[in-house]
Design brief:
about 325 residues, mainly alpha, disordered N terminus
């Protein structure tokens, strides 16, 4: 199967579904992506490595060199993945997650929930709070403060790129795209061919991981519509846990394949980022079985999804579009 880069957006839409995060992003993809996309602004990021010039100064990296330490990983992806961009791999390794550790990492809850229901815990805390007031009147402001404080404790630290699981990028199989013996034109064609091959492989993996066969645009549209219908009822009672657990399990099977495939050197940043985001979504899986019996847990889960969704949307709106834009004819 051969798929050109300009036709790959449908695979990305499906991957959003499989990564348990199509929510706000699916609204975006129905719009004109060209009108909302952003490209690298060289006035703030001279070498387009993902670090602004100000951040380059902070990290003591070269603002005119995408790979300051020359270890084949751009400064931006090293910072995002927990590495020192000024020290060549592997000596720059900080706290990392390897491919063999992925399963343990993705099954950890992001809320740190215990065996007791969060709703019961909150109710007990509220009872204690009311009793502590004795005969004193309780104002609406005090109730609001109590709920805000306790829900914040339940939801834990907000999810950002910095808090997502860290990947040992030295384990990523990177395609060296130096091509020193090729002419400029030949090098350009080779890099484009690498991109097309890589995205074709990712597209095949995503399609083969779909809950239902994707053989046409109609199949693809039906898959998205089903996902949106399921999620729209997620906040209601009787969540279709089997549906979302199936998607999560399929994502878990997909992750090792993404970790083990060859990645063009010019796309390592994006490859690492999407895997980390997917691992973030997958970490919510263990919350599913009890969300319908624990409203507070469901609120916490929805909050985590709302924090992860913009990260995924930004990947498609910025990272992927910036990458493919250079191959447009």
């Amino acid at each position: 199967m051969y798929i050109k880069v300009k036709h790959i957006k449908q695979f990305l839409l499906l991957s959003a579904c499989l990564f348990f995060a199509g929510f706000n992003y699916l609204t975006y993809v129905k719009a004109d992506t060209d009108s909302t996309s952003t490209v690298c602004d060289k006035t703030t990021d001279s070498d387009c490595d993902g670090l602004t010039n100000a951040e380059e100064t902070l990290y003591k990296t070269d603002p005119n060199n995408i790979d300051t330490d020359g270890d084949s990983y751009s400064d931006g992806v090293e910072v995002e993945s927990g590495y020192d961009p000024t020290i060549a791999a592997p000596a720059d390794r900080l706290a990392t997650v390897t491919a063999t550790e992925t399963q343990d990492t993705t099954t950890q809850s992001t809320t740190g929930t215990s065996d007791s229901a969060l709703t019961d815990d909150l109710a007990e805390d509220l009872k204690t709070f009311v009793e502590s007031k004795g005969d004193e009147p309780i104002t609406n402001s005090e109730i609001n403060d109590f709920v805000t404080e306790n829900l914040s404790a339940v939801q834990g630290e907000p999810i950002t790129l910095a808090t997502l699981p860290v990947i040992d990028i030295t384990k990523i199989k990177t395609i060296d795209q130096t091509y020193a013996t090729l002419s400029a034109e030949e090098k350009k064609k080779k890099i484009k061919a690498d991109a097309e091959k890589y995205i074709t492989q990712v597209g095949y993996l995503v399609i083969s991981s779909s809950p239902k066969p994707i053989l046409s645009q109609e199949d693809f549209t039906a898959t998205m519509d089903e996902f949106m219908a399921k999620f729209n009822s997620f906040a209601e009672s009787n969540t279709d846990q089997a549906y979302f657990l199936d998607i999560a399990n399929r994502t878990e099977l997909l992750l090792p394949q993404l970790l083990n495939m060859e990645v063009p050197q010019t796309f390592v940043n994006q490859h690492v980022k999407i895997i980390r985001i997917a691992m973030g979504f997958l970490s919510l899986r263990e919350m599913l079985p009890t969300v319908d019996t624990d409203p507070v847990l469901k609120m916490a889960m929805i909050k985590k999804i709302q924090e992860l969704t913009p990260l995924l949307a930004d990947f498609f709106q910025t990272d992927f579009l910036n990458y493919t834009k250079q191959f447009e004819e």
